[in-house]
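#lab-general

N.A. 3:47 PM
ok so I finally got the sequence cleaned up, no stray characters, all 285 residues accounted for. can someone with queue access submit it? mine expired

B.Y. 3:52 PM
send it over

N.A. 3:53 PM
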Amino acid sequence: MGWLPVGDSYEISLVDGKVAARSVGPRATGRPLKTLPKVLRDDPEVERLRQLGQWLDRHTAECLARVDAWVVSSLPVPTGLLARVWPDPAWRDALRDLVVLGDDPAEPGFLRDITDAGDLRVVNLDGETVRLSPAHATLPHPVRLPDLADLREFADELDVTQRVEQLHRGTWGKPAELRDRDTTITDFRGATVPNRLAARAATLGFRVSGAQVKCRVWEAGRTVEAAMWFDEDYWDSEATLGNLSWSVVDGPTLRLTEIGPAAWSEGMRMATALSGAVTGTGNEA
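B.Y. 4:20 PM
back already:
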């Protein structure tokens, strides 16, 4: 954004999300000052600009969370909606360079631009920029991308950086030897989380409800919720993890053999991250 005059000696602006000031006058260098001058700290214009910066930070976080939810559940999003939000830098940064699918699920491409009419400009695996005009676009979960290895390699060649984890999101595949009657995973039972579990869960993008940490995935026409049980000792802030299970929201607990690939992967990703076995992108199946 531009610089706003404050008094006779300074101008203020948002620089990297923070209020910055610079001197004005014949000897001014035009560079932002290292610290905000004391005379400006309680200025009403500075406070208004600070509040704007805080709102922009919240807006950016909300856009990233929404797009992440679209990716996790591979939701089809109306291209008309994408066209309306694309001019907003926060939305555009969250969406740009994600792998998108149009009408042909076998033709993925990296999203580079969206026209006012809702046409998508994408770079396909042949390196060609093509225009797609579907009514809906899907931002697929990586477990639903058959060309995942090729897409990752091509993304590295293009030096693609995704604001929302998609291509390099940790994925976990379902073991083939699951028993039909089993409903829980016990691999993480007894693992301890040394710091406040609720804060750790929130940092990782999960929510705490009662004695469970949860994440939701919409898959196969239903909303499935993975839940990791825990027992927290509030005296010393240490939590002990229990079993991991999945259920249909407002419905029954699922047998492990009934869980879809995205819900399975996201539940295992959550449990692994909480247990401390993984701190970043996770283990790839």
